Amino acid sequence: MSAGPQRVLVIGGTRFSGLYLQKELHSRGHEVVLYNRGKTANKQLPGESDEEYEKRCKEVKTIVGDRKDATVIQETLGGEKFDAVYDMNAREVGDTQPLADLFNGKVEHYVFMSSAGVYLKSDLMPHREEDATDPKSRHLGKCESEAYLEKIGMPFTSIRPTYIYGPLNYNPLEEWFFERLDQDRTIIIPGHGQHLTGLGHVQDLAVAMANVLGKEVAKGQIYNIQDAKAITFDGMARACAKAMGKDPAAVKIKHFNPKSFDFGKKKAFPMRPQHFYTSVAKAMKDLEWEPKFSSEAGLKDSYENDFVHKKAAGGLKNDFECDDMVLNSDLVDVLLTA
User: Fold this and answer.
1) Contact (CB, 8 A) for 204 and 179
2) Can you say whether residue 281 is alpha, beta or left, with left for phi > 0 and alpha for psi between -120 and 50 degrees?
3) Cβ-contact 50, 78 below 8 angstroms
4) Could you tell me which of 200, 193, 182, 199 has the C-alpha nearest to residue 241?
5) Residue 253's beta-bridge partner residues?
6) Looking at residue 133, what DSSP letter applies?
7) Domain boundaries in the chain?
8) pLDDT digit string (tens) for 45-72?
9) For 64, which of 38, 80, 146, 264 could close a Cys bridge (C-beta 3.0–4.6 Å)?
10) Is 3.40.50.720 the CATH number for 7-327?
11) Nearest to residue 164, comparing CAs of 291, 12, 22?
């Protein structure tokens, strides 16, 4: 199939990565249909004019239904025809199976949103698509979904992003740093601060996913997606400061051993304290894609087009309980080994 206009079903499509993908597909001339519970209204994205937004809202249709109910799926989607399906929010194989069974043999491409969180922790980095996965991963359902799609012969492509960031991010990732830097607080960072992690701007992710359409080489394949370079935890703090117009050299950082504190169910830090980043060479080659955002540019985009507005609207949590436990402790701030 050519990469010309196609009729595309996006499962979800109104929150963060799904919203950016919706806009990217629409801007390329595809007929986009969303499938969701109808509880989240479409949003205008940063840089999108009022005219563009109104046009997108008018032309992108929504079918209301519950993906977890196989009977409802059959009733609402059984009579529809699509060239491709983007499954953006399946977490377990039980979420994936009803949709995959319905469309198997009926679509040219099934694009599945997985996660780089499936990889087994390794001494060899970066993670590549052929690396072992962790049977204890909280994203195990993603792996099982990939295996099911392969088992039934679905022409699928799986996308494994690292930490997605950018405006409208509902995961408090970069916001965690911005909020503390905004109040000139000391940033608490687990370990020695030199763990490398992979960030991926949401717009780059949307472009990569849209590029899958029309590419036979992508069928049956898995692709990692993130920024071109990884960044250290300490570097993340300084990069966020720079994005805010602050002096990165003036950022105050305290390293701590997370095993020395009982934070209960709260997360003291928004990222896993280990090296976690991937190679994107395969995606760049097969999908004719390359990340446009550097970490610095992407974080500035997120700060100016999201955090500033959220703060003005009074939408910040201002929850520093875990921070204060670390900052007020008598434990010596020692750099931990990797």
Assistant:
1) no
2) alpha
3) no
4) 182
5) 187
6) B
7) 7-327
8) 999 999 999 999 999 999 999 998 999 9
9) 38
10) yes
11) 291
Q: What pTM was computed for the model?
A: 0.95
Which runs of consecutive H residues, i.e. helices, occur in 259-320?
Answer: 281-286, 295-302, 308-312
DSSP letters spanning 56-121: HHHHSEEEE--TT-HHHHHHHHTT---SEEEE----SHHHHHHHHHHHTTT-SEEEEE--GGGBPP
pLDDT in tens, 196-238: 999 999 999 999 999 999 999 999 999 999 999 999 999 999 9
* Helices 93-103 & 70-77 angle (0-180, nearest 10): 30
Query: Which amino acid is residue 176, in one-letter code?
Result: W
d(CA 252, CA 186): 5
Rounded CA Rg of the chain: 21
Beta-carbon count within 10 A of 151 CB: 9
- What's the pLDDT tens digit per position in 172-189? 999 999 999 999 999 999
Instruction: Specify the pLDDT at position 2.
Output: 46
Higher-scoring residue by pLDDT: 53, 1: 53
Q: Write down how long the chain is.
A: 338
Distances (CA, A) of 96 to 9, 101, 229, 320: 14, 9, 32, 38
Q: What is the dihedral sign for C-alpha 103, 39, 199, 326?
A: negative
